[in-house]
Every structure is written in structure tokens, then in C-alpha cells.
Amino acid sequence: FFVNAQNISETEIIIDDENVNHIKNVLRLQTGDEIIINDRQGHDYKCIINAIEQGRIIALIDSVTHSLAEPQVEVVLFQSLIKGEKMDWVIQKAVEIGVTKIIPICTTRCVVKLENPKKMASKVERWNKIAESAAKQSGRGVVPEVVLPISMSESIAYARTNALCAIIPYEKEREIGIRKVLQSTEAKSFGIFIGPEGGFTEEEIEEALHQGVHSVSLGNRILRSETASLVTLANIMYEMGE
Ligand code: SAM
């Protein structure tokens, strides 16, 4: 169960959100039962349920460990906005595979355009809910954050500022396969730039290359945007050790 860090003291954890219903009425756990609580920041707390009250549960902390489910590498996915369900799908699967953060990007050929800020904010809120439930389902130790969309230039600047080993899968790249780049770096933090349905423009690719982003091939077949994201992420997890 994910619980906010402010509900965690040295000795006990207070659960007072929707988890109460899940623990009480769905799982029908009792006092004395063991549960694992995660603080969304990579710590797993092995706890014993001490009290089940109206609207809250108190659990006593038995031990704390660093979540073993977290990968050794950090990967930020810069995902071009793609149509509705596909974006949801990428977020869910990327969280399962081990992404650290998802930054939607608005690129020249995005069919999905930025909506008014209120609408966009509620979309991002929904994406974060998808990320949280995927993290819970796959036993992640942290909940990867999905943030508001930014532009292509802003995303390249973000990768530079955060010293990410930045990779841009590009279907016209014929020379360099993704494994070549991964096998020649010691980096532990990566950024992946994925184009929309219509791909990146040549200008966008040029700008990225100019800023030190590595263009890579994912093979001789054209992958859909959502497939390309997951293939790239899975390659990083595989090559760099989970
Ligand atoms: N518009 C392109 C076309 O029809 O030739 C396809 C773009 S593809 C659907 C979307 C994104 O997936 C691309 O911008 C790229 O980032 C990535 N991608 C798809 N296939 C790839 C491949 N074989 N190698 C590298 N990147 C690929």
C-alpha cells in the first residue's frame, strides 16, 4: 500500500485514505496481520496491523528496507503526446517496466494538441492515477510522476540540465543500434525521446543531435510510438541491469 510520508512516524503508520476500505472490506485483514506499506520514496515498511478503527488503520512498524523492486538506472521518458488510450497504455506499461518519470512533450507533428490548462491538468491527474495503480500492481517502490507537457526544446534542455544520457530513437537512423550506445556508456541516468504518430521532423532531430542526444535505430521495422517507447525502455533495463 502506498501511504504519504507524513503519515509515517518512527514507530507507526496511520492509514486514512481509500486503502482503509481495501484493507478492511476487500482483503478483510485483521489486527495482527502483516502488511507492507511503501512511502512512495523507495522505502518498504513491514508492519503489523494494530488497530482498525472507523476511517483509519494504525499499523506498527516492524522493519524498514529499501524497495528491491526499483531499478538501478533512472530513466525519464519524454513521450510525444499521442492519442488518448495509447498515452494511457504507455504510462501503465512504462511504469511496470521501471520508468522513473514521464514527461509528455508537444512536438511539431503531434496530432494531439495542448488543451486549455484546466483540461490538461485534469488529464495529467488521471495519468498520475494510472501510474500509481501500475506501480502498486507491479510492486514498485516509488510512484513515477507524470508532469505537465513541455516543448521539444524544453525537454532537450531538461535532459542536459539533469545530465541524462539522452537517446532519440529515429526510424531513419541506419548506423547506430540502441545496444551500441548502451554498451558504450557507464551512465546510470537516461532520457528517451519518442516521436508522435507522424514521427519527429528533421529539424527536431537536428536540434537534438546538436545538443548531444544520441540518435538510435530500434531495428528495420517502423514501430508505433507506444511500442518504440517500451522497446527502448526494456532495452535500457536489460542492458544496464535492473
Ligand atoms: N512517421 C514515421 C514513418 O511513418 O516513417 C514513423 C514514426 S513512429 C510511428 C513514432 C516514433 O517511434 C518515431 O518518432 C521514433 O521515435 C520511434 N520509432 C519507431 N520505429 C523506430 C525504429 N525502427 N527505430 C527507431 N525509432 C523508431
Automatic annotation (TrEMBL):
UniProt enzyme class: transferase
Keywords: Cytoplasm, Methyltransferase, rRNA processing, S-adenosyl-L-methionine, Transferase
GO BP terms in the entry: rRNA base methylation
Family: Belongs to the RNA methyltransferase RsmE family.
Localisation per UniProt entry: Cytoplasm
Catalysed reactions, semicolon-separated: uridine(1498) in 16S rRNA + S-adenosyl-L-methionine = N(3)-methyluridine(1498) in 16S rRNA + S-adenosyl-L-homocysteine + H(+)
One Gene Ontology CC term in the entry: cytoplasm
EC number: 2.1.1.193
Record keyword rRNA-binding present: no
The organism's place on the tree of life at top rank: Bacteria
Origin species: Zhenhengia yiwuensis
Residue ranges of domain Ribosomal RNA small subunit methyltransferase E PUA-like in the record: 15-60
Protein name, per record: Ribosomal RNA small subunit methyltransferase E
Domain (Ribosomal RNA small subunit methyltransferase E methyltransferase): residue spans on this chain: 71-236
Role played: Specifically methylates the N3 position of the uracil ring of uridine 1498 (m3U1498) in 16S rRNA. Acts on the fully assembled 30S ribosomal subunit.
Gene Ontology molecular function, alphabetical: rRNA (uridine-N3-)-methyltransferase activity
Principal cellular location given in the protein's record: cytoplasm
